[in-house]
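Methods — Computational structure assignment.
A single polypeptide chain was analysed. Its primary sequence is given first, followed by the predicted tertiary structure written as structure tokens.
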Amino acid sequence: MSPARTDHDARRHDVSEAVWQVLAEHGFAGLTLRAVASAMGASTGLVTHYFSGKQALVAHALDILEARTQARPRLPYPSPGLATLRAQVLNMLPLTPEGVTINRVWVCSWDMALADPALYAAQTARYERIRADLRTAVEDARRLGELPATADPADLAATVLSFTHGLVVQALFDPASFPPDRQRDLAENFLATVRLSARA
């Protein structure tokens, strides 16, 4: 690789790190070319070399957010069915400092996504994928006899995601009342209720 290419890749990495720093500290509302330049200790002109405007900057920021979400440490899926469903729920919760930051940035992105058709469609598709993964775990649980055959996978997946996101929001706004241990306890109690209600 040529030195020029190496320098370009290193500089783009620095820009991406600065974008994430601004997101983590100020959310999407504070994400501007000037803010990214300030985080880098560079000129705005350098940043505009990488982004033609705010829309390109936001698109890159969302790519970074998705990549960090996928790369963060997660509980493994120990076995199909309810064990996987439990891991999926816990993996979405803000149980670590990194999890708090990632969830905060996602919540910050909602307002923007509701106002932009392209971002709205992307966020809708993302939640469809999450529900599909949860639905697969529920279907496996039915197949394994952990849930009755009458349990509706789509409804249970939507219920699980609704509970989890509700808990995420409460934990972000009131972390003192919802520390990690309480989040885990509430998640365990909820999943126990899901098992019981599905059998009713």
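Note: The two ends are 63 Å apart (CA to CA).
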